[in-house]
Structures are given as structure tokens and as C-alpha cells.
Amino acid sequence: MTSFLWDLVAQGTTVKSSAWNLLFASGIIYAIYMVGVVIYRLTLHPLARFPGPFLCRIGFLQQGYYEAILQGKFIYEIPKYHEKYGPVVRLNPDEVHINDISVFHEYVRDKSVSHGYILATQPPSDQDHNSIFDRNKRFTKDPATYSVGVDSAMTMTIPVEAHRAKRQVLDPVFSKRRVNMMEDYFYEEIERIFTKINEYEKKGDEVPIHEMFYCYTCDIVSELLFGKSLDMISAPDFKERVKDMQFFTGGVWTALHFPWLRKLITDGPRWVAGKLSATYIKMITYFEQLAQEAMDRYDSDKAAQRNPYEETIFDRMLTNNLKRRKEDPVVEPLKFQDLADESAMILNGGTEPPANEMAYATYYFLLYPEVQKRILAELDAVDLDEHGRLPLQAVESLPYFTGFVKECLRTATLIPGRLPRRVPKGGLYVPAIKDTIPEGYAVGISHDLIHKNPDIFPEPNKFRPERWIGPAGKELMHWLVSFSWGRTDCVGKNLAYAEMYLMLANLFSRYHLEMLPGTHEAMQWSDRVIMHPHGFLHVKVKLRTVKRG
Questions:
Q1: How many CB atoms are located within 10 Å of the residue 25 CB?
Q2: Is the pLDDT of residue 119 over 50?
Q3: Cα separation of 93 and 47, whole Å?
Q4: Residues 6 or more apart in contact with residue 221 via CB below 8 angstroms
């Protein structure tokens, strides 16, 4: 019996020893494999000849640390890398960042191309010209950057033809003509914001103007999206709702660098996702509810009879899908998830970026007294319309105020970082280094670096609205890339411009605004794909008297 027990113990020890040996051997094999990967990435990888920080060249740890852990600070490191390593820097094993403006827009001029701005993908001897963001099929979005859990949304669609088809459906809703037709509606929303401002002013309280900008943009874009405003400005807890919307975009870097966590939250059981990110699930559930309500309200016959002013984004998506299915039975019905994803992207993209931009514009208006003086002189001279309002067309024609809006977009870049693209067949020739980036790998150019480039914008760190006035200012428009550029630029840029022009013009002319302590700290920013301030802009207000004519 004793011998039998000892045999069992011996066998157990042997099993444990074998398990540890297997684990140890696996660890050794994995370590050898990783050493091999590192050596390959440093020596034999197609991007091995491009310089960069050691940790960036061998893996994603450094990028992930600054983006996901420090929440959007990588953008501040990239200029330092260029100072040390030159115009082309390897940010991770499969992506390089380029600080050469000729590669974004122009290597040679060709009058056959719109605006004359093109890009050489080969040296001058091979005139195969193209642009990373131009309207062509060559450069495509980098899948590693566009996987955040809303894959069917137009913005996240990678195949060029699929993106173009979705874009063609949405473009008419955001056209300049359609936006101009919405002027009366813009004023309805502006007056609702001003009513709320007046309530704070009467109490002598500081005005949460930043959060109110969120309500303004959200209520407008939701009306355009669903045919029903979310009426955020009327909610007693509107400031908390704004924080919820910010949270939704705040997790973008975590989603990109921890795909297993993203999959668990987006594809796993909702109760599990709720434990990991209750606010995210709250927002997703809300977007799905809005999408379902819009689908329930949809009537194809009524949608077909609506004039362009009344047509919603969901109307166009559903009607277009219905038309295509009648023409081609193979076309699949639009899925609920398609509408939910699109509503999430458009609602967030149409709310947070323009709201933040208006906050920065208000900040700059208060920060520079001479700028403020010139803006008010222009606005006070505008003839009001029959309703006593500042007409959109008149405001858009003001040279200095228009320059102010553009300088705000340059200084506070809506999308400050890079939107990586995959290099097409034949590679991408970079004049600054006289070398070609091989096909199949990602390249990126930070929009903020373009906006701060002294060769394009002299004294880039100075706030100078006058730089946009006259013929020279018109030329600079080719380098204003706040809304990105080309076929994948922001579909809602016309809407954003109109929202900013009308809100800022009316706010500045109607109220005397006062900056509060802590504002400078609040307006520091991080890159969350969109520019994200560290706090909210609050102001003190007093009604202003304007004498016209």
C-alpha cells in the first residue's frame, strides 16, 4: 500500500514537472520567435531602412502608450521624432509618418487637376501622379486605423467603391444648397440657446457655453439625421449628456490598441460589456433606439414626396436601398446595424468637432482684444434682414470674420492627427528623401503639422486672421485640411461652416463675453482622432447694445 502511494506521488511529480517543462519550453520558443521578429523588423522588413525610435521600429508599444494610456499624446511626440530622424519617421513596424508637404498635395503642378495640386508617386522621370487624399482609387484607408466597432458606417468603410456609393447617398443632404435652405432652422436653434444663456445671465451665473455648443450642433444634426431633434438644450441634465457623448469618442485609442477588448464590448454579451463600459453601452443602446424609432417612422411613399429641405439622412438611406433592391434583387436590405452604426458616427461627428471648434473660436475671440475689436466692427456694420437677423450670406462675405473662422480651423485643427492610407502598387516616392515607400504599408501626415508648417503659414504660432484675406488667402485654402481632403473628407463640412458662422456671429454681436480663471488650462488639448480639450469653456455674459446705421 505504501509503495502504491509513493508511486502515485512520483507520477504526480512527473506530471507537474512535465507541465512546467512544457511551459518553459514554450516560453523559450516564444522568446526566440519574438527575437526573430525584432531582428526581421530592424533588418529585413521593407520599412527597415526608414529611421525612428527603437521601440517604434520593433513594435506598437510606444505608440500604444502615448495614444491609449496617455490618451492622445502621441501627436506631440511626432514633431520631436522628425527633428531627430528627418522627414520620414517609422511610427510602428508597418507605418511611416511623412513631414513633407509635397507628398500631401503637390510635387508638380498640373493644370488638368483641380486646384493644380497633385502628388508624385514616382520620381519625375515617371509621371505617375496622384494624391493620398484625392478622388481616386489608389490610396485606401488603413484597416488597422479604421476598426473601432462601427464598421458599416460610411466614414469607416474601406473599399473605395463601397465608400463612394454610401457617400453619394449622403452628399445631397449636406450640400451647400441644402444647408442654405436650413437658415431659418439654424436661427430657431440659436434662439433656444440664447434663451438658456439669458437664464444664466439673469442669475449672474457662469454660462456653460461649451456644453451649449454641443446641444446646438447635436439638435441640428439629429434633426437632419432622424427628422426629429434630440432637444438636448431643454434637458435639465444637458451637461451630463454632453459628458456621455464625449465618453463615446474618448475610447477610440483603446479600441484600436486593444482589439480583443473592443470585440468583447461590441460583439460580446451586453451584460459583460456593461460591466466593462457602462457609459459606452448606454450610448450604443441610445443610438440603436433612435435608429429603430426612425425606421418605424419611415414611410417610403411620404419620403418620395418630400422636398429636398425635408429629406432626412435616414430617408435617403432607406429610399436608396429600396430603389436599388427593385432594380437588382441581389441587393440586400439595409440592416438595422447599418443604420445604428451610421447614426452613431454622424451624430458624434456632427456634434463634437464643430462644438469644440466654436469653443476654441470663442476662446481666441476673448484671448486677442485686437481681433475682437475688428470682428465686432464688421458684425455691427451688417444690415439685418427683415426678421432683424444677421443673414448667413452676409456673414459669410465678411472678409475679416471669414478669416477669423479659417484661422480658428487652422489653429485648432478639428482632426489634428494623421489618417493613414495604404500605399498603392508602385510605391510612394517622397522627394524630401529621394526614396520610395513600398506598396502595402501605411503612410500618414498629421493635419496639425501642415497647419503649423512655416513654409505654408508664416509665423504659424501667431493668430492672424488677416492671412486669409485677398488672393494669397485664397491660395491658402488648399492647405486648410481641418476637414481632411478629397473623396474622404468630412461629408458635413458645409453644415459645420454654417453652424459656426451663424452661432459665432450672433453670439459675439449680442453678448459681451468675459473669460474665467482656468480657461487656458481647460483649452489645452489631446488627440482623440478629433481635437479634444481637457476641460469645458465657461464664460460670464452681459447683453450688448449695438447701434446700427
A1: 10
A2: no
A3: 7
A4: 346, 347, 350, 351, 492, 495
Domain 167-422+457-543 sits in CATH at: 1.10.630.10
Flag whether 408 is marked binding.
no
Can you give the residue ranges of every domain in the chain?
Answer: 17-93, 167-422+457-543
CB count within 10 Å of CB 35 equals 10
Residue 234 DSSP one-character state = G
With beta carbons less than 8 A apart as the criterion, state whether 150 and 280 touch. Answer: no
Pairing of strands 95-98, 88-92: antiparallel
Question: Are 418 and 256 spatial neighbours (Cβ–Cβ below 8 Å)?
Answer: no
Of 65-69, 270-274, 293-297, the range with the highest mean pLDDT is 65-69
* Contact call for residues 480 and 517 (beta carbons, < 8 A): no
The cell numbers describing 208, all together, are 456653460
H or E, element range at 156: none
User: What letters, b where the CB count within 10 A reaches 16 and e where it falls short, cover 99-111?
Assistant: bbbbbbbbbeeee
CA 162 to chain centre: 20
The H-or-E segment that residue 108 falls in is none
Percent of the chain at pLDDT > 90 equals: 57
Closest CA to 151 of 223, 260, 255: 255
Asked if pLDDT for residue 269 goes beyond 50, the answer is yes
Tell me the C-alpha distance between 146 and 129, whole Å. 26
- Across 161-175, 254-268, 483-497, 507-521, the highest mean pLDDT is recorded for 507-521
- In sequence order, which ranges of 229-386 are alpha helices (DSSP H)? 238-250, 252-257, 259-267, 270-276, 278-297, 300-305, 313-327, 336-349, 352-367, 369-380
CA–CA gap between residue 213 and residue 352 (Å, rounded): 9
Work out whether the CA dihedral 313, 314, 315, 319 comes out positive or negative.
Answer: positive
